Protein backbone atom coordinates (compact mmCIF):
# COMPACT_ATOMS: atom_id res chain seq x y z
CA UNK A 1 0.00 0.00 0.00
CA UNK A 2 2.90 2.35 0.76
CA UNK A 3 4.26 1.94 -2.78
CA UNK A 4 0.88 2.75 -4.34
CA UNK A 5 0.61 5.94 -2.29
CA UNK A 6 4.16 6.90 -3.26
CA UNK A 7 3.36 6.20 -6.91
CA UNK A 8 0.22 8.38 -6.83
CA UNK A 9 2.05 11.22 -5.07
CA UNK A 10 4.86 11.00 -7.62
CA UNK A 11 2.32 10.97 -10.48
CA UNK A 12 0.72 14.17 -9.22
CA UNK A 13 4.14 15.79 -8.80
CA UNK A 14 5.29 14.74 -12.29
CA UNK A 15 2.03 16.02 -13.80
CA UNK A 16 2.60 19.37 -12.10
CA UNK A 17 6.17 19.51 -13.44
CA UNK A 18 5.08 18.66 -16.98
CA UNK A 19 2.38 21.32 -16.78
CA UNK A 20 4.52 24.07 -15.20
CA UNK A 21 8.04 23.66 -16.60
CA UNK A 22 8.81 24.63 -20.18
CA UNK A 23 11.25 22.23 -21.79
CA UNK A 24 9.58 19.08 -20.41
CA UNK A 25 7.32 17.39 -22.96
CA UNK A 26 5.44 14.09 -22.83
CA UNK A 27 6.10 11.80 -25.80
CA UNK A 28 5.00 8.44 -27.10
CA UNK A 29 1.42 8.22 -25.83
CA UNK A 30 -1.92 9.31 -27.15
CA UNK A 31 -3.04 10.07 -23.61
CA UNK A 32 -0.66 12.13 -21.50
CA UNK A 33 -1.88 10.57 -18.23
CA UNK A 34 -0.62 7.16 -19.39
CA UNK A 35 2.82 8.60 -19.99
CA UNK A 36 2.76 10.40 -16.65
CA UNK A 37 1.77 7.15 -14.90
CA UNK A 38 4.66 5.27 -16.51
CA UNK A 39 7.15 8.06 -15.81
CA UNK A 40 6.03 8.27 -12.19
CA UNK A 41 6.30 4.49 -11.85
CA UNK A 42 9.89 4.60 -13.10
CA UNK A 43 10.67 7.57 -10.86
CA UNK A 44 9.12 5.93 -7.80
CA UNK A 45 11.10 2.72 -8.40
CA UNK A 46 14.33 4.65 -8.89
CA UNK A 47 13.66 6.78 -5.80
CA UNK A 48 13.21 3.63 -3.72
CA UNK A 49 16.22 1.75 -5.08
CA UNK A 50 18.99 3.90 -6.57
CA UNK A 51 18.45 7.24 -4.86
CA UNK A 52 19.52 6.21 -1.32
CA UNK A 53 22.84 4.91 -2.63
CA UNK A 54 23.44 8.06 -4.68
CA UNK A 55 22.56 10.22 -1.67
CA UNK A 56 25.05 8.33 0.46
CA UNK A 57 27.80 8.67 -2.14
CA UNK A 58 27.15 12.39 -2.59
CA UNK A 59 26.90 13.14 1.13
CA UNK A 60 30.26 14.99 1.39
CA UNK A 61 29.37 17.31 -1.50
CA UNK A 62 25.87 17.80 -0.13
CA UNK A 63 27.27 18.82 3.25
CA UNK A 64 29.74 21.24 1.66
CA UNK A 65 26.96 22.91 -0.35
CA UNK A 66 24.54 22.95 2.60
CA UNK A 67 22.10 20.62 0.85
CA UNK A 68 21.95 22.32 -2.54
CA UNK A 69 23.62 19.36 -4.24
CA UNK A 70 20.61 17.27 -3.21
CA UNK A 71 18.71 19.06 -6.00
CA UNK A 72 21.34 17.88 -8.48
CA UNK A 73 20.79 14.31 -7.23
CA UNK A 74 17.05 14.76 -7.86
CA UNK A 75 17.81 16.06 -11.35
CA UNK A 76 19.96 13.00 -12.09
CA UNK A 77 17.10 10.76 -10.88
CA UNK A 78 14.72 12.60 -13.22
CA UNK A 79 17.06 12.05 -16.17
CA UNK A 80 17.39 8.38 -15.21
CA UNK A 81 13.60 7.96 -14.99
CA UNK A 82 13.15 9.65 -18.39
CA UNK A 83 15.75 7.39 -19.96
CA UNK A 84 14.29 4.26 -18.34
CA UNK A 85 10.72 4.98 -19.39
CA UNK A 86 11.76 5.94 -22.93
CA UNK A 87 13.90 2.84 -23.42
CA UNK A 88 11.65 0.25 -21.77
CA UNK A 89 8.16 1.45 -22.65
CA UNK A 90 8.82 3.96 -25.47
CA UNK A 91 6.65 6.33 -23.49
CA UNK A 92 8.08 9.09 -21.39
CA UNK A 93 9.17 12.66 -21.65
CA UNK A 94 11.85 14.69 -23.30
CA UNK A 95 14.01 17.01 -21.24
CA UNK A 96 15.23 19.97 -23.28
CA UNK A 97 18.08 21.10 -21.02
CA UNK A 98 19.67 20.63 -17.64
CA UNK A 99 18.00 23.83 -16.48
CA UNK A 100 14.57 22.46 -17.36
CA UNK A 101 15.34 19.23 -15.54
CA UNK A 102 16.64 21.17 -12.52
CA UNK A 103 13.47 23.29 -12.29
CA UNK A 104 11.32 20.19 -12.82
CA UNK A 105 13.18 18.41 -10.00
CA UNK A 106 12.47 21.39 -7.73
CA UNK A 107 8.78 21.36 -8.69
CA UNK A 108 8.54 17.60 -8.15
CA UNK A 109 10.25 17.91 -4.75
CA UNK A 110 7.93 20.69 -3.58
CA UNK A 111 4.72 19.06 -4.82
CA UNK A 112 5.79 15.68 -3.38
CA UNK A 113 6.51 17.26 -0.01
CA UNK A 114 3.11 18.94 0.03
CA UNK A 115 1.29 15.79 -1.07
CA UNK A 116 3.19 13.62 1.44
CA UNK A 117 2.18 16.07 4.15
CA UNK A 118 -1.45 15.79 3.07
CA UNK A 119 -1.58 11.99 2.86
CA UNK A 120 0.69 11.49 5.85
CA UNK A 121 3.29 9.39 4.02
CA UNK A 122 6.92 9.68 5.10
UniProtKB/TrEMBL annotation:
Keywords: Membrane, Transmembrane, Transmembrane helix. The chain crosses the membrane at residues 7-27, 33-50, 57-82, 88-114. Coiled coil: none annotated. The keyword Heme does not apply. PANTHER family: SLR0284 PROTEIN. This is Phage holin family protein. InterPro entries: Phage_holin_4_2 (IPR007165). Pfam families: Phage_holin_4_2 (PF04020).
Amino acid sequence: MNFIVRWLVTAIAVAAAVWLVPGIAVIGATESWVAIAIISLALALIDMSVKPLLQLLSLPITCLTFGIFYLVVNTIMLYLAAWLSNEMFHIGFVIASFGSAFVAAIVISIVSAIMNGIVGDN
